[in-house]
User: Fold this.
Amino acid sequence: MTAKILDGKAMAAAIKASLKDKITKQGIKPGLAVILVGEDPASKIYVGGKEKDALEVGYLSEMFRLPGDAAQEDVLKLVKELNLRKDINGILVQLPLPKHLNEELITNSIEPVKDVDGFTYNSAGRLFTGSKGLVACTPKGCIEMIRATGVDMKGKNAVVIGRSNIVGKPMAILLLAEHATVTICHSRTKDLPSITRQADILVAAIGKTRFVKAGMVKEGAIVVDVGMNRDENGKLCGDVDFDEVKEKASFITPVPGGVGLMTRAMLMSNTYEAYLMQQEAK
Ligand code: NAP
Assistant:
């Protein structure tokens, strides 16, 4: 079997176009504020992509670039100001923050209704309990990609490799909400291939170049690759050995052109949702 490619670029473009259409028809302009502290090169690229997407969709987009030695009080003061601004519906603090800053405290200072990254304890708790809230962009994007296959997740065996707070754990909860039977694997999991071979849906969020081989995948599985790694030649690649696994899976996400672009699209979607939630609360 050769897998169908789940094209993140096309899906993300369609989501952004639909959002643009909605806000144009509704005559609204949701606002997204992104805070970048310091000069981390990868963070600068991510933040640039978010700004580009927001402008493309037609949002108000404000970037706040603070120096790498910014004081904690200054970052907290900025978040507080943005929490109060009516024209800003979503606030994102780009992680990682410089070491001297308390990431946990700063992230949790964002008002939950403006937490478009879904990283606050409030948002995580809402996801855990099934209450309405903003969901972390990467796992939300993965679920959208699985939905796009048209395969009903109900009762399927889903295996998530990775248990980080930003990808693995929320991913598992979203799959559970879709009524999949979920197994979470990690670095201490015994005989990982025997577990992954049971997966109708396999999500890899490990951070290891081409770690998932064809022998670890069930024939016909849906394979979602969250990994963003550089191989020995500096080429961007995922956690899945795409060339091998695409011959066995029914659907597969590529890297690049997969989950990364959907993550960005979900940020746009969360900003719109945040806008609506704030209108409802008025
Ligand atoms: P992370 O916090 O480093 O977590 C990695 C997880 O993989 C951990 O739970 C770890 O287990 C597990 N793991 C490591 N080695 C393993 C092994 N040999 N067998 C089984 N499990 C193993 O990483 P993350 O933040 O979740 O990110 C994962 C990957 O996704 C990275 O490549 C990252 O760049 C990428 N990512 C992409 C996007 C996107 O938009 N596309 C967004 C976020 C992250 P332990 O818990 O036991 O250590």
